[in-house]
Amino acid sequence: MPLYEHVLIARQDLSNTQAEGLIEHFSTVLADNGGKVVESEYWGVRALAYKINKNRKGHYAFLRSDAPSAAVQEMERLARLHDDVMRVLTIKVDEHQAGPSIQMQKRDERDRGDRGDRGDRRGGDRGERNDRGDRGDRGERRERDDRN
Hints:
Blueprint: E1 3-11, H1 16-32, E2 36-52, E3 55-66, H2 69-81, E4 85-93, H3 102-112, H4 139-147
Antiparallel strand pairs: 1-3, 1-4, 2-3
Helix pairs in contact: 1-2
């Protein structure tokens, strides 16, 4: 059977349990039509790039499935009819990537507090202070002003 990846965006005013209930609902729709969900992830509430139905945020969910195209079409049809689902994206893939998705990997990095190799913010690797030495001597300026 073909392999698919689905991203669902649900309304922001749902609770987390209701959003995760949508994942279960659409997983059972795929299972009832001869497919199976290999993995599902709840990404949480995230900001949208633009307003959708007057919403600025949405609950994101990610599903990896192994299902016939008829099951995927039925799942998409029901998702588009569902009042809580704002958008659905389905992509056919050659193979599923092992491990968590890129979004979950980014979340893990944020949770660990990994800030990368930023160095010290007060001068960094240069080891010098920013004392505005490029302005020159201000004494000359005062002498010019006194002459005028």
